Amino acid sequence: MKVGNRYMLLAQTSLAMAESTVYTVGSIASSINAIQPLDGFISYSIEFSSFPDFAGNKSNPNDFSNNLLDNLGAFSGIKPYIRVGGNTQDFAIYNSELTIALNGTYNLSRSADYPTTIEIGPSYFESYSTWPNVKFSHGFNLGGNHDDRQWDTLLQTVPLACKALGKDKLYLWEYGNEPDLFSSAVRASDYNESNYVAEWLDGTRAIRSVLETSCPDLLDNATYGYLAPSFAGTTNHLNAPRTWADGIDADGDIKLFSSHNYISGAETLGVTLQNTLMNHTKTTLSVSAHTAENATIQPGIPYILGETNSLYHQGRPGLSNSFGAALWAVDFALHCAAVGIGRVHFHMGTDYRYASWQPIATTKTAIGTKPPYYGNIAAAAFLGSAGTLIAPVPLLSSNTNTNTDTDTDVAYAAYEPSGALARILVLNLRAYNYTLNGTGGEDLNPVPRPRRTYRFTGLDAEAGAGAGLGEAVVRRLYANGSDAVTGATWDGWSYNYELDRGRPVRLENVTVGEKIGVVDGAVEVRVADSEAVVLDFRGGGGGD
């Protein structure tokens, strides 16, 4: 990370910080209303056509991707769950004679980001063997893409997928991606919930029938099930409550209620870092549609976001691949956890602007770790291992002349299973640009970067936060600015490809090990604009 190292040195030693007199106060309450997310909360969804790029194959496994997954597993105690799916799962046709994993043809009038005519061969399924200790969901083709080989593809690929996965690697099955959008491309305009449910039941029952012959050991309750209905959103052509009412779970095999979410679109007018991604109010409004949907259906099945990221249509350059998107990823993930969404799968694909990393070098994109990955790491480090409880921390301004901005001042508390306070995370989402006129050139005389002081009270036994909190280790998610596309670090660690192929490397030019004392049940921390800080009262969270 030669460029990134130089940027970080500039950030730590040369950029002036403008001190702010504004104190933002948060009171830490007990963990009684905190929520426990599912294990592996920070997980991924990988575009079906891109999976061989991300994972490699038996003869050439993608160890860069695996290293990045290992890093997350070191914080959470389990590597991310991987959903293999997306639009291209519904384009994939099986060809038993194909000698390569995937043959894709691009139709630029449909998409410049992924092939829309796809054949997969037997070696496609080798990619499931390359990442140790990872569980996958495999997406089967329901949409068909107007190809009459769709049904044969389903019957032929079930044995290949189940044998490649087995009990150790199988997460869940998925049948169809975003069927609520089918009526715009692959079904009649009057396609409705009952039509979809009939198709889904026919297909999943066929899958089960093939499994009875090919992989009967995968049919017990611990290994057989689906994530569904995998709708693109909460307001499209098909309605999730009606889908459940029409009997999609008639066989009782849906294990996770999966929906998809994007804050906005890459081509939507008016989308900016500050007003769209680095905006907590926009995030809460977007997620609230999902919490309302879950409350309406209440099927007794955990609700997850099986596919999500910043801006649909694979993101916008300069926004989705910036450090501001990393800060958005932290806020989005932790808000989801705090309102009861069990797991989030950040979607990725080869050359996708919002991807957390680029798995291979292409003519469009260099191989490497992108800023959003650092947001994933920071969120995973804050969440810690399974059993952690999460709650938002309400913030108030103690300066009568400056109100706390609910768009940009955000905090969360993480509690141990016992209820003792473990960590506080603070986000200052005010955008700070360090480039020249937004062109990406380095500004050697940038405007001083403001810092705000956040004070948290109630860190005593009477508040239920846990006794004996003497000090906190400060861990920072940092880059030169919200518009930076290189140079991000978490607690002084770099996970860049150039240094050690994604393994953690401690940078010598970044200050770490800062500690702040707890005085009279309160702690104060300064947070720069476009920065996230974790106060770790338990001393864990290292990167080595």
Task: Please explain how this structure is put together.
- The chain has 544 residues and is an alpha/beta fold.
- The protein folds into 2 domains: 2-35 and 388-536, Sandwich (Immunoglobulin-like); 42-383, TIM Barrel (Alpha-Beta Barrel).
- Helix content is 25%, strand content 26%.
- The strands form 6 sheets. The chain has an 8-stranded parallel sheet with strand order 8-7-3-2-12-11-10-9.
- The two termini are 18 Å apart.
SSE topology:
Blueprint: H1 2-13, E1 17-27, E2 42-47, H2 51-55, H3 63-76, E3 82-85, E4 92-94, E5 102-105, E6 117-120, E7 136-140, H4 150-169, E8 170-175, H5 193-214, E9 226-231, H6 240-245, E10 254-265, H7 273-277, H8 280-297, E11 303-312, H9 323-338, E12 344-348, E13 357-358, E14 368-369, H10 371-383, E15 389-392, E16 395-397, E17 409-415, E18 421-428, E19 449-457, E20 471-478, E21 489-490, E22 493-494, H11 497-500, E23 505-506, E24 515-517, E25 523-528, E26 531-536
Helix pairs in contact: 3-10, 4-5, 8-9, 9-10
Please supply descriptive tags for the structure shown above:
544 residues; alpha/beta; Immunoglobulin-like; 2 domains; seven-stranded antiparallel β-sheet; 26% strand
Largest sheet, strands/sense/barrel: 8 strands, parallel
Based on secondary structure, the structural category is alpha/beta
The parts where pLDDT drops under 50 for at least 5 residues are 1-15
**CATH topology (fold) name of the largest domain:** TIM Barrel
As for the number of domains, it is 2
CATH architecture of the largest domain: Alpha-Beta Barrel
Strand content: 25-35%
* Broad CATH class of the largest domain: Alpha Beta
Order of strands in the sheet with the most strands?
8-7-3-2-12-11-10-9
* Beta strands, count: 26
Task: Report the CATH superfamily of the largest domain.
Answer: Glycosidases
Helical residue percent band: 10-25%
Question: How far apart are the first and last residues' alpha carbons, in Å?
Answer: 18 Å
What does the overall shape look like? Answer: globular
